[in-house]
């Protein structure tokens, strides 16, 4: 024991002497001595010591069983080298200003022992030297606990944690969490500093500034000021630690909205806006981490979806993380029940009557709304959707496309009959079949196709050229005005009108059933709305034209019998004129123009049903995205175009009539010339002036040339390049995109109602008549009650929510089916995440751990060897004594024998 102590002491003395020699040698030439710590160095040089120091040294010496001489020598050696830290100003200045720069020998030894995992040494020093300052710090400002935790010395940490006056436990905890030392984290959490639980919720910025609980050294903390243990653990994906912390009551508060105006937010914002944003990001990083999502929420799917939406605008990456988490959960499903649990949410706690019989798919609806495309396009989800899509018609799924097309055609031709049958008996077997999403879709698509063919056939009489030329008039009988021939609706047009009105009724029901904002947010609805609006305007204009003509006809019928040789008043005569004489603002002309636009838009509506097909769907998605790119490009395009259009017009507007042609002389001509120049359809001579104004002409040439270079060579080619790249990009994930679009399409047919397709939905069904009668009766008999019921829709929702929360309180006592499934999935997810992590870090971490263990083991072995040596020496001395005694006895015996 003594020899070993000496050995260690010698090693240290030698080390310090060497240091001393080298530092004094270096320090000697520098004449300037730093002012900082001068008094200290003076004190040292005068050989004075602090009384506490001497005491510590004494105990240190005693503990090693040194004799006083050795001790003095050692103290001297120890004392002398210290000034080096003040003398040097160059290298190593960073850590010199530490207030606790001078460590006693014992403290040095203690810190070393903690750092290298010398368990026996630490234990001995803690037991034998109660006055040892266990919070002393090394040159880096780290205390024993921090060193032990940093090097993963579990036993040493445990030994240190027995002391109550331990400092910087918070920092040690954060360090252990960041390195993933679970056992150490648990040991640290067992310390009484965490007894009140408040420590786990506070971040370093919230604790008392004089408290060095979270301090790394005197200058600050190791981690950012707003990092709490749970935030760090979540960010490091340490599931077990997050779980432990959550069990201890640690939580993360959701940050306020970025534009929040509350007191705390504005205070933080004005104090340091960067730090405010930083703390928001840190909190969100925690909230969006799979570890926190899965362990802190009863319904992680819902939480992750909500979080992904919340982060969508500001933090794309975190939002993706949430989405990946949901997809990961879905990926781990092994049976239909689990998939249903994820897609439907907790159906047991809030059974709604309108979704009975079919899944409500609330979570999926949310995923579609928040555009979690990977989730919706996931095979597990698609499989579920497919089975609902072919509800009652599962045999059709395996059929070839030809059979499906035949079915579609059959439904299209039999649509009136089918609709009539459904109208009579909605609850029959056929009615149930028709209510299935697939047949509903087919019926709607067929109805739309019929509408399109009506639009085509409406112009059938003019396919080969109209028989009524613009300069001709005609009438059936002499007293008929010409316009009475052109304005009335044909029977084909009346069919189209009925379709449009049916469609409008459908849209009205749509708006009624869902929120108006939701309706507007869907681009298809906007397209529908504009088509219908244009059609209606066109028909109304036509009706006005007819009305004017009809009133004129009435006037004529009253006053005239034959119009052939009559001079009519101008208002009446106008309705006799041929088309070439109509006013440009004639309602009929407006109606015809709008109708043409509406027809074009109606055909674009086909794109809505194309995603149902697997070969057209992806193509259409790509096309749509490319058009989106085109619109972005158009902004630049139009800017350049406008610049040259106005510039050229300014240059040539004074030369109207004095040019080779009319190009650029008016704004309209300028537009036409430049527009067709893009396609190479404008002449170069457009810039030539007939008179001798060379300067203007040359400027014209230059500008026109530059325009052509920019437009045709640069911009057009860039557009093509952009198309290429974005098409490639879309092509890569067009499958996901298409499946998402298809799911959206399918989903719109999953909801009940709207079985009868346009225009048959205009005929009130017995069911709706009955409910209308009931509604009227309610309104008449108990009017006030009905009113309350009308605006109590929100209240009902609230009640439902309250019931739900009550249920969830009960549920925490005994988990519902949904909760147990969720728990199962989350467990599976965590196991998978941990397995992945282990695979990742098997090389570095493990190797380091082994190294640390070997280091500890060495010290333990040394200790044991020492003990063994001691016992052996003891035994030998005992043996020697025994031998000695025996020898003496033998001698005595011999002597007695001799005598
Ligand atoms: Zn706020």
TrEMBL record:
InterPro entries, sorted: Ankyrin_rpt (IPR002110), Ankyrin_rpt-contain_sf (IPR036770), Ion_trans_dom (IPR005821), TRP_dom (IPR013555), TRPC_channel (IPR002153)
One CC-aspect GO term: cation channel complex
Domain spans labelled Transient receptor ion channel: 260-326
One Pfam family hit: Ion_trans
GO BP annotations, alphabetical order: regulation of cytosolic calcium ion concentration; single fertilization
Localization annotation: Cell membrane
Catalytic reaction equation(s): Ca(2+)(in) = Ca(2+)(out)
Keywords: ANK repeat, Calcium, Calcium channel, Calcium transport, Cell membrane, Glycoprotein, Ion channel, Ion transport, Membrane, Repeat, Transmembrane, Transmembrane helix, Transport
Topological relation to the membrane, as annotated: Multi-pass membrane protein
GO molecular function: inositol 1,4,5 trisphosphate binding; store-operated calcium channel activity
Sequence ranges of Basic and acidic residues compositional bias: 32-49
Protein origin, superkingdom: Eukaryota
Keyword Translocase: no
Residues passing through the membrane, by range: 405-425, 437-460, 526-550, 593-610, 630-653, 701-723
SMART domains noted in UniProt: ANK, TRP_2
Chief subcellular location: membrane
Ranges for region Disordered: 27-56
PANTHER family: SHORT TRANSIENT RECEPTOR POTENTIAL CHANNEL 6, TRANSIENT RECEPTOR POTENTIAL CHANNEL
UniProt-recorded name of the protein: Transient receptor ion channel domain-containing protein
Species of the source: Dissostichus mawsoni (Antarctic cod)
